[in-house]
Each structure stands twice: as C-alpha cells, then as structure tokens.
Amino acid sequence: MPVGTLANVKGVPQDVLEDLGVEILLSNTYHLYLRPGVEQVRKLGGLHRFMSWPRAILTDSGGYQVFSLSDLRKVSEEGVAFRSHLDGSSHFLSPETATAAQIALGADIIMAFDECTEYPADRQRARASMELTLRWAERSKRYFEEHKGEVPWPAADSHQALFGIVQGGMHPDLRRESAARTVEIDVPGYAIGGLSVGEPRAATEEIVAATLPHLPEDRPRYLMGVGTPEEIVQYAAMGVDMMDCVLPTRAARHGLLFTSEGKLSIKQARYAQDENPLDPKCGCRVCARYSRAYLRHLYAGNELLAQVLNTVHNLAYYLDTMRAVRHSIKLGEWALLSGVRSTPKP
Question: Is residue 19 among the annotated active site residues?
C-alpha cells in the first residue's frame, strides 16, 4: 500500500496512481484530524470524494504518530492527551474518538487504536502496553459495531472493516499471547504493529515469525511499516498479505531509486552522460521515456519534476514486485524469488 498520509501520495496525481495499478492507499487519521479536520472531510463526502480516489483506503488509527510525539503526549487508560506538532494545541484521542474519526473519514479499512510499544522496552513495560492495546481493541470494536453505519455518503458504506493490532514489544511469547487474544476479539483482519521502530532487522524477522502462525490464514494479515523490496518478498513468503511503507516515496525524494540491478543513487555524477533508461527491465512510464542523464540533471537542479518522476518509478517498482509475488504464488514457484537482491517482473 503506497502511503498517502495527508490524503495524497507526495508528487503523484491520483490518475497516475490508477495507471500504476494501485489498489489501496494508506492515509493517516492523526494528520487528517489536525488538518484539514475530520468534520471538514466528512462534509465534503469523505476521503474518497475529497481526494477523488475511487479505490480502497486504509486509515491508520494515529497510535503510531501519537507514540512518536514522545514529550508531547500523556497516555492514560482512557486514551492519549497530546499537543499538535503543528501549533502546540491540545487534543485527545481514545479508542472511541479514533474509531469515530475513521468512520467519518469513510475509510474502507479502519485500524483499532493501539499503543505502539517503544524500542527498547523491558518485559514489564511491553506487557503493560500489550494489555492496554487489548483493552483499547475491545473498546474500538464495541464503538465500531455501534456506529459503523455513520459513513459519509457516497464515499463509503456499511462494508467498512475494523482490523486489530498485535503488540508485545520484542518478546516472542508476548506477541503470541497478544495474537491469540486479539483473534478472540474476532475482527475481519489482523495487523502486526510496533515494528520498524529502531529494532534490528533480525529482531523484526523473529517477531513476525513468532506471530504469524497465531493469526488466522483465512483473514488478512497486515505487517505495518515494512519495508524494502527484499523484505516484502520475504514477509509475503512467510504469510503476510498486506504491507505499507514510506520508503519508496521518501527514498525517491532523496534520489534513491530501486531497480532490477539494485539500488541506484541518481545524484551521482557518473550518470550525467548515461543515456540508458533508469532500469532496462522496467516498463514504467519513467523508464520508457527518460534517460538516467536527464533524471540526474533534474535532481541536480533541484527540479520538482525529479521528485515526481523518481516517485513514480519507485512506486512502479514496488507494485511490480508485488505482482511478481502474486504470480509466483499462483505458480507455486517461490524458489524463483528466494535469494535474489531485487525482484524481477514476471
């Protein structure tokens, strides 16, 4: 899922996203809650109409963003009091208000409000955070079941779905317990949260491997905040169905591009005379039209078009990677993808 935090993928119009084959976008409740405001979006018909996006939208509950505020927040049983990173104004999010906001935004997939456990966190802290997240998940579901029909017309309807989030820090046994108890709450999908918060990649892999077997195979399993092309292939092979990450868009804005030959930094002078396409094996609109020399020229000149074209390519590469994953699953040929540095197109 490409990340469109503020109801947009930076630099890429929605029609281009459609042409790339994007099926679902991720937007963020915290940021939209602060600006332009949930009520304003609701009055304008919800996120789908507001951003002119006819396909699916998943909204993060805002728990991770509130977690990242650190000194600007205070967590209690009821919820989280925090100060806006924009103007310092005081706000409060709870399982009920976060769920209400996502319903009003008209998201197709709504995430339960959780506390993202920091890294490192000792066992006592991780358990306390896990228990709080489980209580908040029950409250999120209760509010969702009571209010899920209150959606902005015509952006969404009663087909909205609530996903639960597994926490437990870097403790595999707590993750297993959290997964089992979250499944007991019985929601349409389950996410593994609290990763990509500074832990080593090996720890991430260990936690994912410990958690996945305890989540039902017949419901979506969503790994939040992952990752590189190699990682999404690896985690899909382990049984993950959904992933999101800011990496393809953020890296693009800094001139880091993903290709079938590995990562490429377009800012390097060696590309100044390179007439070759960015990736000879890529069929995206950028690789079909522009040379590395031109893309390097745009980036060196700080042209806005550089960020746009780089982002389009990286998104195309990630989407092609996922298409290759699905193709390999259908063929039963995971060995074709194992051990490769970058995923080829089918």
Answer: no
